[in-house]
Structures are given as C-alpha cells and as structure tokens.
Structure prediction request, 338 residues.
Amino acid sequence: MKRIFSGVQPTNKLHIGNYLGAIRNWVKLQDDPTFADAEKIFCVVDLHAITLPQDPVALRQNVRDIAAAYVACGIDPAKASIFPQSAVAAHSELSWILGCITPMGWLNRMTQFKEKAGKHREEAGLGLYSYPVLMAADILLYKTSHVPVGEDQKQHLELARDLAGAFNRRYGVDYFPLPEPIIMGEGARIMNLRDGTQKMSKSAESDMTRINLTDDADTIALKIRKAKTDPDPLPETIEALEKRPEADNLVTIFALLDDTSRKDVLSRYSGKMFSEFKPALAELAVEKLSPISARMRELQEHPDALNRILIEGTEKVRALAEKDMEEIRHIVGFTKMA
Ligand code: TYM
Prediction:
C-alpha cells in the first residue's frame, strides 16, 4: 500500500523554493495514475514550528495560510488530507517512543541543528535538537512509503529510515516500511536571490532574498531585477552555467516555471544579457504565481470552506493514526485501558 506524506512549517510565507522544490511535486504525485490508490497526507507542521519562538496569534494564522496555499497550488482536498500536525496527538506520542530508541550520536550529526543553533548550542531547546525525531514520527506514523521533499530534507529522511529499521530490530517486528524520499530533479534546491551559495529560506532576514507566493507583480519584478547576477551574457552550456551559481539559479527557476529544462532555456537565451532575461523571467513568474495568490485570497475570504477542508482532513488522518498507534502501543508493551 503506497502512502505519500509531506509537510511545511508554518513559520512564514511560502516562497518559490517551497513551491518548486516540494508542493508542485506533491501535486504531480497526486495526479500521477501510479499513485491513484495511494493515501495522500499533507500536513502543516506547527509542532515543528515551535522549536523556535513563535507568536501564537501569527502561528494560528500561518497554519491557515499554508493550508490555503496547498489548495491554491493544486492539492485537491477530495484526493488528499490536509491538516495541522498539532491536531493529531499521535505525532507527539510516536515522537516520544522513537526518541527512546534514537542514539544521541545520530542527532549530533544533523546539520540543520548545527545551522539553527549556531553558536548558541547550550541555550538551544531540546525540541530543536530532537526535531528530526518528530519528523520521523510524522512519516512513520502513517507507514508512509513516499516522501516528496526538497534536497535540504535528505538527511532527515535518512534518519527516518534509520529509525524505522531501529524500531523494527528493537522489537523484532517488520512493522515500519522504509520511507523513500522523492527529491525531484532541478528544483530540489532553489537558491537565495542575493547569494547563489545559500538556499532560499523562509527564515532569511531580508525579504529580497526570496519570491513569496503572495508577492504582487511589482514586488516580483523588483526582486528579480535586484537579484544578484554577473555581467556576462548567459552561456551556451550547462557546464558553463553551473560555474555561475546566481545565473544557474535564475535559469533553473525559469525552466521549472516554464515546465522545461535548463538546456532548453539556454537554447533560447544564450548570448543574451540579464537585462533581457530578467524581465522575461519576471513576466513568467507573475504569469505562473498570480493565479496561485488569487486562489489563496479567495480561500482566505471564505474561512468556512477552509475550515471544512481542515476538519475533514484531520478526521481522516486521526482515524488512520489511531489505528496505527494501537498497534504500535501493543508492540511497545503499553497497557491498553478500556
Ligand atoms: P520547510 O518548511 O523548511 O520546507 C518545506 C518544503 O520545501 C522544501 N524547500 C525547498 N526546496 C527547494 N529549494 C529551497 N530553497 C527550499 N526550501 C525549502 C523543503 O525541502 C520541504 O520539502 N522539516 C520540514 C517539514 C517537515 C516534513 C515532515 C517534511 C516536518 N515533518 C515530514 C516531510 C515529511 C521542513 O522544515 O520543511
């Protein structure tokens, strides 16, 4: 039985990296006939969000905005469940169980903790450290087979696979399948518009480093115009492009938005200057993103419709989670009461 699970943290607005690296691929899988019978679960991971301080009012709003973005990007609530992670308590429960079989050494290797905690390791919260265990719980709880994510989540996915194996060995069962990451090609890592060596991120301080799904046409055009580039015209070959991270990033974004390849974009634009390429990219980005932001606004103006989607999604996954949790509790040796 195939099951697809993925999620986004409701920590800020969604950017084009989240869309091109993750959500767009969720939609492709949703509509792929080979996954027609698969359960599809898309979560807004608010438990993960509070590993760093969040304003409670903003967090609640962000959960709704991200859920609206899922639908606006093409997730169909008739085919997939959308829900807030905190509404299904089993995520936290399984996270504890998995935490008890996670060697500290495995967590010490996680690069995201090192990046986020930075020099303040001693003050960093336990939740930030054990973040990947909760993520493994999200995935394993539903016996997920496929996890579509961007490249930055690869290490966390490896941990989820290791924990599935560790659980099965510890309890002598063949319970959790090993989840497969699905990291799709060229959009797996969209870079920061001001620094092509850093990934585009919700948490980067400057908003000029990313294109948000809700940016208006002028803002998108401004951000692309101001994006860092070099003075040379676009090259002819992918090898030459890959030596220029900022140019490569803009060509990649163009190719993905246009549903084509970088090679194809170069065949149209090699020899052209950024003064010509950037306005074309801005026009394409506006064309592709404005229907998404319009649909998001529509959903935000109809809170009842969005509520219904979240309630139905939550009810569906709660039932799946509770069924699996019963089995997991039994395997672990917990006492069933009533
Ligand atoms: P988050 O919220 O940081 O990102 C959501 C998704 O967007 C992808 N992504 C990118 N892809 C390409 N280029 C980028 N610059 C870029 N930035 C982000 C991420 O890879 C991700 O797929 N830990 C996860 C959330 C999570 C999760 C899960 C995901 C919690 N539990 C279970 C899958 C399964 C996170 O922080 O994603």
In short: The chain has two domains: 3-188+303-332, 214-299.
